[in-house]
Each structure stands twice: as C-alpha cells, then as structure tokens.
Specification:
The structure is a homodimer.
Chain A (H helix, E strand, L loop, with lengths): L1 H7 L2 H13 L4 H7 L5 H13 L3 E5 L7 E5 L1 H4 L2 H14 L7 H9 L1 H16 L3
Antiparallel strand pairs in A: 1-2
Chain A binds a DNA duplex through helix 3 and helix 4.
Chain lengths: 129, 129
DNA sequence: TTAATTGCTTGTTAATTGCAAGTAATTAGT
DNA sequence: ACTAATTACTTGCAATTAACAAGCAATTAA
C-alpha cells in the first residue's frame, strides 16, 4: 500500500493517467492543455517518474520527430479497476458530478464489463500494443 | 474525479483511512504511532478535512474524556472497493509486498466478498454504527 | 495535588509547487 | 534556403506547503 502511494500519491500523477485513459491523451502538449493547469516542470517530472515506475512508456512519434508518444503499460492499465471505482464513488457523492444515471447504473450493475470496455477502448485508440 | 482528488489527493489522508480500516485506528495517538511518521499538525489538519468532507466523524470517548474517537461514515466505507483494488495492485507489482498468496488469490477470485468482509470487520470492531 | 496522557496549536526551517521565461530539436511556410 | 512555429522540455525564483520542535489546555491516574 505504501507502494501505490509512492507512485500515485500525487494529484497530478493520477490526473495524467485519467487523461490517458479517458481522454486519449498521449502527448505532452495534450496534458498541458487537458490537465487542470499542470505546470510544465511538474508534468515533465511526473511523466519521468511514471516511466521509471513502469506505468507508461515514451517513444518518438514516427510521423513527427519533434513529438513524443506516451502510452500506458499493462501495469498502468491494471489500475483501471481502482480508478473506475473512484469514478463511481465520485459519481455517488459529488453533488456536481457530470456522470449520467445511465453510466452510474452501468458501473453499479456491470462493473467488470466496464473495466474491459475502458481497457479495450484504450488499446484500440492508441495503436501501439 | 476532481472531487476524489480534492479529498483523497494526499498521501496522509489515504493512510489515515487505511489505518482505520485495516488497523482499527480510531484515536489521534494511534494515528501518530501507526502512520509512517505523520507530523502532528498535518494529522490534525487531515482529520479536520476528512470530517468536513463527511468521510469520518469525531466524538468524545464516553469512557475517557480526554480522548476522541474517529470513525468512518458510510461515505468513507464506500471507498473500500477502491482501496482494496489498490491493495491488490500493490500486491501484484510491489516486489516487497507483504501480501500472502492466499490473500492475493482471494482478492483475485472473490473480490466482492473481500469487500464485504472488510466492511463487516470494521463495523464489528468499532462499536458505533 | 502532582504527574501523565491525549489532542491539539504555534512558530520556524526545509522542501515542494507554481509561474515565467528560455532553449534545443524538428518541421512548416515562403 | 531561411525564417517562423511547434513540441518537449529546463532553469530560476517567489509562494505555498510540509516537517520538526516545542508548548499548552483539558482530563485522568498515582
């Protein structure tokens, strides 16, 4: 449990993974624009640590040499259940949640299916694995 | 999702909840001794915030007036699935994990049951709900 | 009635974050 | 070919936060 906290015990780290999973972010620029205002030095630091811990990989974009592509590894993808449960919890208790009733019911009734969907969606869209 | 991070996006907050769930901590002193070295001002701050957010309650110990008892609310207990998934993830990837094979297999095969067990154990031991 | 115990608060120092600016490598436009 | 953008960073500094140490009020035990 200390292990998770070492890696994820930080707001931005969590947001980076969320943006990769749910918004398809895979570039530095996208994180800067999407994450609710990460400072660029913090983003660089967190991407580095996530890479060192084996949750994401970095590679040059073969189609544009000045861009890098960031992708979740299996280890990173295995956080989907935890994250989806936290999403569900937010939906239950956040008075300003944006989650629809339909999504909440799906998370309540067919959670494991939801995990698989998120995983497959990610893998289909990132064109790496 | 931003909602969870506002509340839990902090190492110590998470450890407090973990200690309540798995170590039966319900007193200030116990957190100081158990949490891997929280500073007392930080602990006071986090307990206050957890209370304000409705994840825990504080009450005077009826048997000892200088002590307070901290307990998880339903809202706090509803984090058990998220936390157990993180525990499971740690068990999978932390090379120094202390989780036994038996526990890991139980988490893999009968996760929902594990959630119920943790919940019931907590409620049985805290003598409040 | 003195000494512990418990749950804090208040400084002060050290570490971390956030912001602004700048840089190297690559690509696009003229 | 040359200039201007774009992308992924780094660096320096101010502001915020955390960690450490000490102290304090309320209650209880000796």
């Amino acid at each position: 449990m200390t292990y998770v906290l070492e890696i994820l015990g930080d707001k931005w780290t969590f947001l980076i993974i969320r943006d990769m999973l749910f918004k398809g972010c895979c570039q530095y620029k996208q994180f800067i624009e999407s994450d609710e205002g990460v400072a660029t030095n913090i983003l660089a630091d967190r991407l580095k640590k996530l890479t060192q811990h084996g949750l994401i990989t970095q590679c040059k974009d073969p189609e544009n040499g000045r861009q890098k592509l960031y992708h979740l590894t299996e280890k990173g993808l295995d956080l989907i259940p935890s994250i989806l449960h936290l999403v569900k919890w937010s939906g239950q208790y956040d008075p300003n949640t944006v989650l629809s009733n339909a999504i909440m019911q799906f998370l309540e009734g067919r959670f494991d299916e939801a995990v698989q969907i998120v995983r497959k969606e990610y893998l289909n869209n990132c064109h790496v694995h």
